[in-house]
Amino acid sequence: MTTRWLTPEEQRAWRAYVAASLLLEDAIDRQLQQDAGMPHLYYSILSVLSESPERRLRMTDLAERLKITRSRLTYAVTRLEKDGLLRREACRYDKRGSIAALTDEGFTVLERAAPGHVDTVRSFLFDRLSEEQVGQLEEITAAIAQGLQEDGTRTAADDVPWRRRSSPACS
Amino acid sequence: MTTRWLTPEEQRAWRAYVAASLLLEDAIDRQLQQDAGMPHLYYSILSVLSESPERRLRMTDLAERLKITRSRLTYAVTRLEKDGLLRREACRYDKRGSIAALTDEGFTVLERAAPGHVDTVRSFLFDRLSEEQVGQLEEITAAIAQGLQEDGTRTAADDVPWRRRSSPACS
DNA sequence: TAGGTTTGTTTAAAACTTGAACCAAGCCCG
DNA sequence: CGGGCTTGGTTCAAGTTTTAAACAAACCTA
User: Cross-referenced Pfam families, in alphabetical order (chains A, B) (predicted)?
Assistant: First the structure.
């Protein structure tokens, strides 16, 4: 089968997208590095934890929400723990598990970094979009993410309903 | 001034965006690494070169199009040169300049990798969007990129029209 | 209980990024 | 012309991150 190349419209969209995502991620990383001493990913870890029940989550669940590998997460969490922003706890229900729990200090750091972060996201993203476009962006990116999820992390267990992760957060 | 937090709609959009861009970049990197032995950025370098007049471009111009620092580009180009996919040439009109020129081998590698890459982009992105959404995506990301450009790389020269880079590609 | 899975970490090697420092070449202006 | 600033590009050192493979412990199911 011969390749279906991108149409001119698709090409324009693709290029604009690539440029925007690169620039945006750079800008956000820079801002957070500056103001909070950590890159976007690390901030996201704290942020996700802060919204979880009891501000804690199992490593695997955390990795899943952040769309990163467990190995990568282990590395990041180790640094955050060293900085005292979170703590690892044992899981009572599953002795293999370890739980990342946001510390008070971590929460404070997050609270202090949040305004600057939101300002950045706002000024570079939402301030430039109409309300309508915000909705469009959500639909578009949600569709993309969905496609990539079901495809990527497809394991045998996904085909066995009764074995699917339920993850009561073990909390 | 108190922070204007994100509205629920904005939050949803932001999260979907972050997840999608991460997953998409991962998927593309994986595919290209697999099929062409290089990450997305390197492929982009070859790709931009292949579309430039005489398949060559000055380093600074290349960095500008790719939205990366010159330092970062130097590193990448060094590797690509080592792999024989491009060659550095002296610039006749400006003895400071160096030009990255795609080699025949580089072009061949690109030709072979392109179908797989396009397939990936298509299946993860465009196949999931309506024609209308493609247009929306372009407008949205173009707006974002524009905002980030004028802000970021603002140098004194930008305010002096007659000194702005014209870059006749020196070719 | 055996066999296969899942969890999370470890390890070692690469790959990448950054920022500053630097040199050579170009440009400006008195 | 010649000093002084700017630009193009690389180099360097340091640190960060990423990956993949291997692993042990704990789980699960038959």
Answer: MarR_2
